[in-house]
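pinned: reference chain
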Amino acid sequence: MTSEPIRDPVADPLLTPQNSALVVIDYQPSQVQTVASIDHELLTRNIVSVARLGKAYGLPIVLSTVNVANGQGPTIPELREVLADSVEIDRSQINSWEDVDFRRAVEATGRKKLIMTALWTEVCLAFPTLDALRDGYEVFPVVDAVGGTSPEAHRAGLERIVQAGAQPIGWVSLACELQRDWARTDTVPDVVDIVLTSRLLKGL
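pinned: its structure tokens
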């Protein structure tokens, strides 16, 4: 049993810890409460698992909120705990790509593959995804860690960005794509805990 040499982790067409960044947009109480396409507890568990994966693989992480300065609640506590060392970029724009600080933070990662998560699918995921694609980024929306205001709106949002070139993934496939080889033992304990011990083997 022999593993192939690791492909160039920057040029690899698949996601690697060296070529991708995680973008997390608007996981705030009011947004979560109005999601109608996925169970709220499952949504929270899934985005927390995505964030844990981002931390385990050392991905650059861009975290943004909308309108906290004007009274909206900040990032939900379960997610904020995992991303405690990430600066929240608050903005007034619905489309985060139209916020200069947000866009600069994405550019500063130096990565062209964006693992994109946001609430809601049809708005805060769709708009920056479409703009990022036009600006030459590859975008990978994590379909089971996002949610829309209705099942139809969620599906329409995903269809819109996929037609524009986004590449949908699930949170488990994200974990396996970043890990790629069980012989890469440094991250095996984390990925096994995040995916299996804490979630799938518990039926969560």
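why pinned: DSSP finds eight helices and five strands in the chain. The chain has a mean pLDDT of 96.
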